[in-house]
Target: Nicotianamine synthase
Amino acid sequence: MVCQKDALVQKVCEFYEKISSLESLKPSKDVDMLFTQLVFTCMPPNPIDVTKLCKRVQEIRSNLIRLCGEAEGLLESHYSTILGSFDDNPLDHLEIFPYFNNYLKLSLLEFNILSQYTNKVPSKIAFLGSGPLPLTSIVLATYHLTSTSFHNYDIDPSANLMATRLVSSDPDLSKRMFFHTKDVMNVTSCELKDYDVVFLAALVGMDQEEKLRVIDHLAKNMAPGAILMLRSVHGARAFLYPIIDPCDLRGFEVLSVFHPTDEVINSVVIARKLPISVPIQSLDQGLGGAHHVMLPCKCAEIQAFNPLNKLNMIEELAAEDHLI
Model:
């Protein structure tokens, strides 16, 4: 009898073979169908630990995450172009994007989590990896943080051009939404220190090493006490997006981790930049490099999330402080 884990892995590998053989990942009937089926396969809660799978499946997972990222970028570009063609305010038509409701739920979740750990409304927020359709910034700015300015960073100038076109007709957001064409690793402390909150998109850093380099860069350059919001995944959803291990957030105090179990795919990690200077060991250094403090990790039990109820969130289990 095939165990649940083996059946799931086999199904995901079959999807990978089909997706990787596509001539294009641009939105089409076949592309949309395959990715929708893949998401529904990975969505149900599953205790699988993808980091323990064999090397071949690990490689397939890594490749699949990159394919998902590419397809997601193409999907956002496609709909950003359509929205930008409307003569009136494009933001009045966001519901045509097929996953808009998911962004509404995810943004509400992130806002509720952020509200638990901040005493004031942030004046400036940075979103790193905003893309051509910056829905998180738009939803947060429109519904939740109506006086906050949002600075969106993306390495692709065409993505920023499309995103700018979307908000330029809106009398409010056009004054509070800004776009910067820049590699995340080139965003300096002079810029980062001005932000109360920094959001890191799920697809900035497509593997663990890339993600750690970005996190270390933020730890060195963000203002002490500033909040970092990250998106991770749990269980089988890790075939779709990279995982962030809370204990990899060197230079930050991890406050909480939230794992939704509904159609909101991404988990949310919230951390605070340490108010003191902590040496961060470079990924390029060997074991003889500087020691660093590993801050208390707060793990989370999986619990269904009702985005309309602030109190229905995940129970936190605080781990004890320890040093390495």
User: Anything to note?
Assistant: The first strand starts at residue 124 and ends at 128. The chain has two domains: 4-95, 100-323. The domain at 100-323 is CATH 3.40.50.150 (Rossmann fold). The longest helix spans residues 55-84.
